From TrEMBL, chains A, B:
Keywords: Hydrolase, Manganese, Metal-binding, Zinc. This is Zn-dependent hydrolase. Its cofactor is Zn(2+); Mn(2+). It comes from Bradyrhizobium septentrionale. The keyword rRNA processing does not apply. Pfam families: M20_dimer (PF07687), Peptidase_M20 (PF01546). The lineage of its organism: Bacteria, Pseudomonadati, Pseudomonadota, Alphaproteobacteria, Hyphomicrobiales. InterPro entries: Amidase_Cbmase (IPR010158), Bact_exopeptidase_dim_dom (IPR036264), Peptidase_M20 (IPR002933), Peptidase_M20_dimer (IPR011650). Zn(2+) 1 binds at residues 81, 92, 188. Belongs to the peptidase M20 family.
Length: 410, 410
């Protein structure tokens, strides 16, 4: 039915997103863990929409949904994911899938537009079973042994069992055909407040930052909290608190413009109210897209540890337990998003890194890749109250479709 | 057999302590939780020694061992406890019991010495089942319902079951007879390094400090550790770290000479490496024997909380969850210990508060009470490596026996 769907329709985008929100609704958000019943129903829902966009739908052996086109000309891959964090928002994932679906509907059925958009929903971007298992499977970076080992972090159900329960066991896993796609495009809510706080509508993602993670351990002397004088204590918990403050006081002068760092977990040993902790540990994370910035900050961590150790109360050890690899987004694709923003969003765009991980960083290992962000109200995400103004959702969709058109036009 | 035992015997004191160490030995210490088999064997061992000290032994319905004398004249109650912390030291408890036993052997069998020493081993001073249940039972501060509710913190065995297993169920619980005793005397290892670091041999305890405990809660905003800019974060964990440091920076100017304070437990919510903690909590304890000092420090906690809250990032709430009552030791008894130290320990004594809790604080609610400390090597306690030089153990025992003599002499 060429031409029938060929005009962009913002109302249709909103209706589709609300249809997905109705599946597994939780307050104003959704509860759709990977391979849960509402997640599987969402995959089926998408597979049912794809033919209207001129696509043949497949759900593969790891739960990826892929819509492929027989149309002549270049192919652009686009999508995101359909599962959610537990009791989380309605847009994190579905927004990018529905933008891709809308682009496919507009472009694939229009004989006047060159090439086609192929739509993907990558399974388990939210990491219930692992780390980007769906998109990593598509770029051939997941082995059968990886799947054998994967378990749901909430229920402990194995991924194999979940695949059997879903009816996906035994299906082939689809992988990227070399040179089939000119690249990958993904839209997402920003999950921060950069766009909202500056009145902008589109974030042109320059890179997806890498995550460097550290275990910082403090060894003092466990002792009685009543009988040990303050002057002779070697309190590992206090050393940890001073270290956190020293990081926060010294990092701003050394970091990049968008570096973020977080102490997410603190443990005292033994953690009893009447015992001076002899040991303490913190999990510390730095995110940036510039390894030189990370090198400076990591050197500072070691300097602070050496200074604290030299004071003789506690030994401080800094151990890197995760090394980040930033994914740089393709510059020509960034230019296309910016041009589309100028055409459809009054130029209200800004180039910015993504502090969160996305499937685009995985696809970027095998093809040109890019992302665009729309504003998040209050910067909230991973919570059921996550939201974006309907008008911003529609503007983002227009920019997305226009970007696809421009990329396919070459 | 009057006179046979009437000479102080330091070798006998050491032999007895080593006999108790052999029951439930763990490395150079012991593992003797309340109502464990080695603990029960230790109670029986003590009951077997008491007749040689002219005492009639009873093990009562809560596991207290009491040796009572029929000798004319004043009675002094003396003792400590026989159970240990898990995998802990050999002297914490037994030292005070064996000193009392030695004093009873020397004094009770000597017709030339006025009055008698009655020996007690209080059950569960180490709090496996509760808080000072044995000595509190003796001062009539434990109800049957309290015992019904008590459970072993390690094994979850009820106290009732443990009493049945030990064969103590159904026995009466002994309580203090009004005006039977002129007072209570207890010896203990210091569990700190005040004596060792100053070359002293005897600590004359002036008071047993009270413990005031606080829950300090920090409420910020949970958010994504990758997408939330540093400038807009409301990180409850960082607020907690700054609070710990502010306490440590400001308390020294406000505290008393022996005040101690400890943050024993820290919890971040949700405690995940990629999430900015929206909540944090610390358990904080202050020990002192002067409620005015506590009032100053508590006011400072509230001032720091108000200042931190006023900065607008996190709300800080300080909640007192345990109010301490310091136990003052009887001045005339302190004088007697000091005089005995002058006679038997070259005057190498110092008056000092006890930062740890002891049964003496419970006995002090119904009769005059006092304590003396002997040095702890390295200040170590609640660990199997806890120790005191044999010579210091013997000196302490001599001072203890001489103190008993002086108190009974009136």
């Amino acid at each position: 039915m060429p031409g029938i769907n060929s005009r962009f329709d913002g109302k249709r985008v909103l209706a589709d997103l609300n249809a997905l929100r109705a599946i597994g609704a939780y307050k104003t958000g959704v509860h759709k863990p990977t391979f849960s019943e509402p997640h599987l129903r969402s995959l089926d829902w998408l597979a049912e929409q794809l033919p209207d966009a001129g696509l043949v739908a497949t759900i593969d052996g790891i739960g990826n949904v892929l819509g492929t086109s027989a149309k002549a000309g270049p192919k652009l891959l686009a999508g995101s994911h359909l599962e959610s964090q537990n009791h989380a928002g309605w847009l994190d994932g579905p927004l990018g899938v529905i933008y891709a679906l809308e682009a496919a509907r507009v472009i694939n059925t229009d004989p006047g537009t060159n090439g086609a958009v192929e739509v993907a929903a990558w399974c388990d971007e939210e990491g219930h079973f692992g780390s980007f298992l769906g998109s990593r499977s598509f770029v051939d970076a997941v082995t059968d042994a990886d799947i054998d080992a994967a378990r749901d972090r909430s229920s402990d159900r194995t991924m194999r069992q979940a695949l059997r329960d879903a009816g996906f066991a035994g299906r082939a896993r689809l992988t990227a055909e070399p040179s089939r796609h000119i690249g990958y495009l993904e839209a997402h809510i920003e999950q921060g407040d950069t766009l909202e706080s500056s009145g902008l509508k589109i974030g042109v993602v320059t890179s997806i930052v890498g995550i460097w993670q550290y275990r910082i351990s403090f060894t003092g002397a466990q002792n009685h909290a009543g009988t040990t004088r303050m002057a002779v204590r070697r309190d590992a918990g206090l050393a940890l608190a001073r270290f956190c403050v020293a990081i926060d006081d010294s990092f701003p002068a050394l970091c990049g413009p968008r570096t973020v760092w977080t102490t997410g977990r603190i443990t005292l040993d033994p953690g009893a109210p009447s015992i001076i902790p002899g040991g303490a540990e913190m999990l510390f994370q730095i995110r940036d897209d510039n390894p030189e910035v990370i090198a400076r900050l990591e050197a500072q961590l070691h300097r602070l540890a050496a200074e604290a150790t030299a004071q003789g109360r506690c030994d401080v050890k800094v151990e890197r337990i995760r090394t980040g690899v930033p994914a740089m987004m393709t510059p020509a694709f960034q230019d296309a998003i910016e041009a589309a923003s100028a055409a459809c969003a009054g130029g209200k765009s800004i180039r910015m890194p993504s502090g969160a991980g996305h499937d685009a960083q995985v696809l970027a290992t095998v093809m040109p890749a890019a992302m665009l962000f729309v504003p998040s109200i209050g910067g909230i995400s991973h919570h059921w109250s996550e939201n974006t103004d309907d008008a911003d959702i529609v503007t983002g969709a227009e920019v997305f479709v226009e970007t696809c058109r421009r990329l396919l036009a070459g």
